Amino acid sequence: MSNYGIAIHGGAGTILKSTMTPEKEAAYTQALADAIYAGEAVLKNGGAALDAVELAIVSLENNPLFNAGKGAVFTHTGKHEMDACIMNGKDLSAGAVAGVSNIKNPISLSRAVMEKSDHVFLAGLGALDFAKKVNAKFEDDEYFFVQMRYEQLQMALKSDSMILDHTEDTFEKGEKKFGTVGAVAIDIHGNLAGGTSTGGMTNKNYGRVGDTPMVGAGTYANNNTCAISCTGHGEFFIRSVVAYDISCLMEYKGLSLKEACDIVVMDKLVKIGGEGGLIAIDKFGNIELPFNSEGMYRAKKTFGSDVFIGIYK
Ligand code: ASP
């Protein structure tokens, strides 16, 4: 393998050109470009897929446009509870955190769980204690206050139901957007890695955990098959064990990445009502960006090709 590749996403859902302003579109495009180039810079210099994935996700977490890190959505009680996971396809090592507050970059904390603890998954207060031990960067509540997200919570609260959206003015119309972020990559050494980070869903119950931090549901990487990062209505992605299902279809049934993605995203998920999408890269560097929603913020870049940035169908 003398090649490398990286793909990222910034969430899927009801993303329509008709409701997008040129300014907003430009801002999202720029944010996606910044993140993909941050990841590519690592790979170009012979760096590890794991580092590329972490750096690309940190870039997205630091941008208030996305529902992760700084832009994380509000829970029902007006707090931020973030989930993240990172996985190394080389040895199937993984780290994840769930329900963490005030952590600037949950993806880096999940990597610390992987590399500096005996565990795979830490949640809540235990994860925060661990974060202090490894000197993770904390931010106060003010850092995570984004006016648009607050207004989304007010709208969701008014509708008196658990609203899964985090879009601005479309709750009443039943439109949905999931702004989770993720990255998958293969480095020149043939190693795959994947990671995902999220604030979850606006107005979610406190303590609710989505698919994002669950190995095999929202995130997975295995050098024998592929690396996957998902975005969408987490409950359905958990029940469908989406990321691992794709890997299994490749490993046990010999399907291509595209065939496996099509079955899981466009058929199995659709049949149970699971809206969303994912980014996937296989051990040959093939990239798939399938989604069954109206749109998905996404980008990809491989060695020797131009960057691709997409938003709509
Ligand atoms: N999958 C995430 C969750 O359920 C939401 C998203 O993709 O935005 O927490």
Explain the overall architecture.
The chain is α+β, with helices and mostly antiparallel strands and 313 residues long. It has one domain: (Glycosyl)asparaginase (Glutamine Phosphoribosylpyrophosphate, subunit 1, domain 1, 4-Layer Sandwich). It has nine helices and 13 strands. Strands 1, 2, 3, 4, 5, 6, 7, 12 and 13 form a nine-stranded mixed sheet that branches. A four-stranded antiparallel sheet has the order 8-9-10-11. α1 runs antiparallel to α2 (49-61), α2 (49-61) packs antiparallel against α3 (106-116) and α8 crosses α9 (257-272). The protein is globular. The chain starts with a strand and ends with a strand. The relative contact order is 0.20. Mean pLDDT is 93; it is low at 164-174. Aspartic acid (ASP) binds at residues 11, 67, 178-180, 198, 200-201, 210-212, 218, 231-232, 234.
Task: Give helix and strand order, one letter per element, not per position.
Answer: EHHEEHEHHHEEEEEHHHEEEE
What is the CATH homology-level superfamily?
Answer: (Glycosyl)asparaginase
**What is the CATH architecture term?**
4-Layer Sandwich
Q: What distance lies between the first and last C-alpha atoms, to the nearest angstrom?
A: 31 Å
* Backbone shape: globular
Task: Please compute the radius of gyration using only Cα atoms.
Answer: 17 Å
Mean model confidence by pLDDT: 93
Molecules bound to protein:
aspartic acid
